[in-house]
Write a structure and sequence with these properties.
Blueprint lengths: L1 H12 L21 H12 L3 H14 L3 H25 L6 H8 L2 H33 L3 H9 L13 H16 L1 H28 L10 H10 L18 H13 L18 H30 L10 H8 L5 H21 L1 H11 L18 H17 L6 H22 L9 H12 L15 H10 L8 H27 L1 H5 L3 H23 L16 H14 L4 H25 L18
Length: about 625
Amino acid sequence: MLCGHLGRFCEKLVRRRPLEWREGSGGGLARCLSTLDLVALGVGSTLGAGVYVLAGEVARDKAGPAIVLCFLVAAVTSVLSGLCYAEFGARVPCSGSAYLYSYVTVGQLCAFVTGWNLILSYVIGSASVARAWSTAIDSLTGHHMSRALQESVPLRVPFLASYLDFFSLGLVLLLTGVLVLGVRESALVTKIFTGMNLLVLGFIILSGFINARLHRWQLTEQDYELTKSESNGTLSLGPLGSGGFVPFGFEGVLRGAATCFYAFVGFDCIATAGEEARNPQRAIPVGTVISLFICFLAYFGVSAALTLMVPYYQINSDSPLPEAFLHAGWPWARYVVAVGTLCALSSSLLGAMFPMPRVILAMAEDGLLFRALARVHPRTHTPIAATVVSGTLAALMAFFFEINNLVDLMSIGTLLAYSLVAFSVLVLRYQPDQHLSQNEKTEVEITEIKPGLDAGSQEPVPEAGMAGFLSSLWSPESAVPTPQSGHIVYECALLLALLLTVLSLVLARWPSRLVSGDPVATAVTALLLLLIVGLTFILWRQPQSPAPLSFKVPALPVLPLVSIFVNMYLMMQMTSMTWAQFGIWMAIGFAIYFGYGIRHSLETSEPQPAASSSHTRL
């Protein structure tokens, strides 16, 4: 009896949603966003104020002029995740992004974890940008606003901000009202701010190249000593490095690339607009790829211009671009940079707030969150309840908290979502598909009934037991996916995800042991790599679905696996305090799921089919 109840309980946790349009799902949302709207949304969300600050920080302390390589490496690794999102956008025109993708692939509990952490990421992201907006305005007014608030409404509570930030509160509530008005209005405002931001960045890149000196990419220690002597020996900027284009070596490029990777976070908001985009099967893949390409060009150009205008060791980390123009003799350009910063913050704030209610809407429609949050306004066609609730939550967080301490917590949710999307693409491509032609279906049925059929003799070849199973791993009999091959892929993908997580943990936590040649660490790493290569080869040998899509991730299964590894490696860099905060957030989420969501889910409580066969409805 106990085993039966436990079995039924576990079946509920792995219930999967069919990857198809559900009647009534998001029915009140309006399909009005063009590809240009999605590009503006993706660029606005990704290309925030970091482009005005991050390049200076990384160039000065980690990479020097090789920061352009850091952004190149970061862009390539971000594209790995972006391509996975693009394929899912081509598969189904639904809201929910990574939440939906994990629901149809891994199961309900994993989907809730994904959606719950996406909400956390968007809330913290919105609050942090609002705080940055407030800080920018405060600096322009000579810090009078912050001093007045610290005197009138100080906060002396641990983990909270030093004062109540009424400006951030009002700003988030104002943009919440813009989002409630309608998706067209939100898209228009986003396009205006994003366009102005790109114009300012174009000015920075062009003027930077006008004031460029190629010698600044070939600096030596003599240049450093000369600068120090000119400043009467008061220059204290830390070690110069070895000079040249890569002064901090290859290790510095990798450390800088890990930091620059987060500069590309935000493009996933495009996938949440699946039910509001015209022709989403084409618009979402195209919008995702173009957005990442534009962001890379902007980051690459700004970092190149900055390091060509100013020697990298003289860059001001807090205000790199204004100080660079002051160094070049263009002090008036600081005001142009200030305008661009405010436009970038505005578009980034809208980009962070836009996807949040769409994820909440998708979860509420599925019954995993409270059904009242699924209300869509009949006139504005916006998820009004989810927008108001999420906007209020972000406003209160910006009002009370010092967000800088929570940025790493936001990164965990984002990287987890990226990993699950890559895993979902890896699994779904190898599953049987309902869109097969009649001849292909007949071939699948024959393969299922007579897996050892010989084409020449038309008689089954006896090959059973373990030998037959191992043979099917290396030489599948069917040219299209079967339930058996789908099951093999699912199990191998799970093992690969586990092995990649362990490998990333080893490389992130014990790199010194590998460098020193520790025999135990070396043997463990070698064994992990051997298993990963073997399982990857098995996946590569399995047949892929021939169903036509407007976009497919190339180089399967390698590309999604590399994406999973990169994301897991970055997650393993987080501190124990960040993981403790993550545990608290998850405890709140599990209380909601096990107290409400598991009982109100729209998926039936009937036992789900096996992992491979559950995708035959795709």
